[in-house]
Each structure stands twice: as structure tokens, then as C-alpha cells.
Amino acid sequence: ALVSMRQLLDHAAENGYGLPAFNVNNLEQVQAIMQAADECNSPVIMQGSAGARKYAGEAFLRHLIDAAIEAYPHIPVVMHQDHGASPAVCINAIRSGFSSVMMDGSLKEDGKTPSSFEYNVEVTRKVVEMSHAVGVSVEGELGCLGSLESGHGEKEDGHGAEGVLTMDQLLTDPNEAAEFVKATGVDALAIAIGTSHGAYKFTRPPTGDVLAISRIKEIHARIPNTHLVMHGSSSVPQEWLKIINDFGGTMGQTYGVPVEEIVEGIKHGVRKVNIDTDLRMASTGAIRRYLAENTKDFDPRKFYAAATKAMKDICKARFEAFGSAGNA
Ligand code: G3H
Ligand code: 13P
Ligand code: NA
Ligand code: ZN
């Protein structure tokens, strides 16, 4: 059944677990997530970016999710708009049947340039007003995602005119977070706590201090009723990196956010954990390997099935580690 983000995250908060939110663009990703959720009895958050709607087409994406809900009626599903760059994008998502939207006002409408606090409040408040009127939840974002190791923002780019961002600029300010939530009424807040989008997060193996856990605690203490969201939370599985490169890929050495650190964040108020890169890597590695090892095959269902299985294993591992398994 389709449920709102608020319902799901309230339950997660009451019971002390977190939920992975996986990005979806195609049939295989949707099936991998639903098969994994079914096997471990977890509720599901699927999210589509504007790029996903462009790739699949609005109707195809909508019906893929509807198919998931029809095929697994016992699994609560949130369909969430990821990184809405404007109120218009969020309205389109709501019209498309999404039960939750992210208004990412931390950036201007170009999706690149950091915006002002006032702009962020204004667009987010507008989206909250419209969304709540129709039972749709809203995620906002405050702060600049970027790796503390590199001192660089990624999408929210630290390499721009203003130069490299300082450590403090890369972490969400707890007082601002409280002011933002009060002014906007968001259900969930994405915070900057040391992560960045994509595969290239850290150049060295993490040593247990990737996330700014103390900052998570401070923010949670200020806004205990707002669910915290971690973007850029892929773990960048080293086994899949190796498989990609063993079978013709040329990805550089890189590291992600260790699952144990995410679990620590969940203990301190993180409820939604965004993951896209891990499933991309598993699917690419599985397809590269399948095609290299089965050179006579030309039935795409074979290599797509290999990708689905690889993604499903990661989904199950995250449902179990974050504690959502058993809570459907
Ligand atoms: O944060 C972005 C997500 O990983 C979605 O990426 O815009 O390429 O679909 P995308
Ligand atoms: P990753 O690139 O770490 O998977 O993060 C995805 C994300 O934050 C989507 O909003
Ligand atoms: Na999101
Ligand atoms: Zn994100």
C-alpha cells in the first residue's frame, strides 16, 4: 500500500530503526527492492529524481511503482521525489501520485548554486503548504553536502568561485536547523554531516570517523520531532568495485560511508538513508561479469536477472543493518 513518508518515519522513530531510500529508474531496480523487502518484511522508500522521470518517462515510472504496490500489497511503500529543484517539480510529482516530495532549496533552481537561507525557507514553506493540504510529506535540505576529507562540496560544489568550503560550512548548523524547521514545517530534514553524492566520496579507507556523529546528536536534540535524512549514503562496496574493474571497467579506487557508521547515525535520529550509487555499482558489475563469462548469450533477460540479484542482495543487507526488516 502507498503510505506517506511521515507515517513510515514516525514508525521508524518510535521503534528506533532507519530506512534505506533507494533511487529507482527502471524495472530491475524496482523488482530488486521489492523482492528484498518481501523476503525480509521491510517497508520501502523508493525515490525518483527528475532525471529518473526524464529517463523512464513520467507514466512509466508511475506505473512501475503502481505495479510494485499491486504485486506486494502487504508492503508499505513510499514514493518520494528526490531533490526537487523547484516547487513546480514537486507539484508535478504530486500530480504523478508521489506520497512524498523533497524540496531541495539548499540550491537555486539550477540545482548547482548554493542559495540563501531566506530563499530556502520561502520555497520550502510553499511546498509544505501545498503538500500537507493533500497528505503528502515534505523533506527539506539545509547545508552543503561535501566530504570532510576533501573539504570539497560535490554537487553543491566547493570548487566554485568562492573556493573550497571550510569544515564548518560543510556541516548543518543546529540553530539554523531549528529555525528552518520552525519556519517551514518540514517532516524530514536532509543535513550535511560529512557525506557527498556519487562513488568518489573518500580517497582513503574510512577509519570510523566519516560522519560527524556529534553534529547529528546536536541537531537531533534541537529538532527531535523532525526526521533526519542522510544523502550520499552509499557504502561503495569494494567487492563490486573489484568486479567492475576485473571485467573491463576502469573506476578509480574510492571508498564510501561504512554501514556501521550509518547504523550509529540511526541511533541518533537519522531515519532516511539515501542510496543510489551502491545499486548502480552492483548492477554494472553483475552485467559486466555476466557478459564476460557468457559470451554466446544474447538474451538480455539473463544479464538483467544477474543485475537484479546483485541489487537485491544489497537491499536486503541494508534493510537488515538499518533495522527496518521485520517492520512491514
Ligand atoms: O542525488 C542524486 C541521485 O543519486 C539521483 O541521481 O539525478 O542522476 O538520477 P540522478
Ligand atoms: P549516493 O550517491 O551515495 O548513493 O547518494 C544518493 C543520494 O543521496 C540520492 O539523493
Ligand atoms: Na530525497
Ligand atoms: Zn541526494
TrEMBL record:
GO terms for biological process: glycolytic process. SUPFAM superfamilies: Aldolase. Its EC number is 4.1.2.13. Zn(2+) 2 binds at D104, E141. The lineage of its organism: Bacteria, Pseudomonadati, Pseudomonadota, Betaproteobacteria, Nitrosomonadales. Zn(2+) 1 binds at H83, H197, H231. It catalyses: beta-D-fructose 1,6-bisphosphate = D-glyceraldehyde 3-phosphate + dihydroxyacetone phosphate. This is Fructose-1,6-bisphosphate aldolase. Keywords: Glycolysis, Lyase, Metal-binding, Zinc. One is catalytic and the other provides a structural contribution. Binds 2 Zn(2+) ions per subunit. One is catalytic and the other provides a structural contribution. Its cofactor is Zn(2+).
